[in-house]
Structures are given as C-alpha cells and as structure tokens.
Amino acid sequence: MCIFSLALGPGEEPITFVGKTTRKIMPARGPNDFGWDPVFQPDGFEQT
After folding, report:
1. I need a surface site. Which of 19, 26, 37, 39 has the fewest CB within 10 A?
2. Beta bridge partners of 24
3. What is the rounded distance in angstroms from the CA atom of residue 6 to the CA atom of residue 43?
4. Sign of the CA dihedral 34, 29, 27, 45?
5. Name one GO biological process term (predicted).
6. Where exactly are the structural domains of the chain?
7. pTM surpassing 0.85?
C-alpha cells in the first residue's frame, strides 16, 4: 500500500491518493536498484 497526501496551500484541505496491489514476497532477485522492488512479485507476474 502506498499513500500520498497533497495540500495545495495553507488552509487547503489535503487530497489523499491511495495505491494498493496484491503481491508475494520473494527472495530478492534481479537488479537491486530501487528499494524493496527486488522482493515484491505482483500477482499474475513472473518477475519482481
């Protein structure tokens, strides 16, 4: 799950965006370029 909130200025109500995906946690594989990407395999995919 990823949650991001943005307020467009002082006194403005924040806008919140939520992203969610189902996945498996796998042994790390592939390039180790970005955070936790090497250990998450989205459902329906064969790669992390």
Report:
1. 19
2. 41
3. 29
4. positive
5. nucleoside triphosphate catabolic process
6. 2-42
7. no
Distance CA 1, CA 21 (A): 7
Q: Which residues are paired to 14 by β-bridges?
A: none
Output the six-digit token pair for 47. 């790669």
Residue 35's identity, in one-letter code, is G
User: Which of 28, 18, 33 is closest to 41 using CA atoms?
Assistant: 28
**Which stretch of DSSP H or E encloses residue 1?**
none
HEC secondary structure over 7-47 = CCCCCCCCEEEEECCCEEECCCCCCCCCCCHHHEEECCCCC
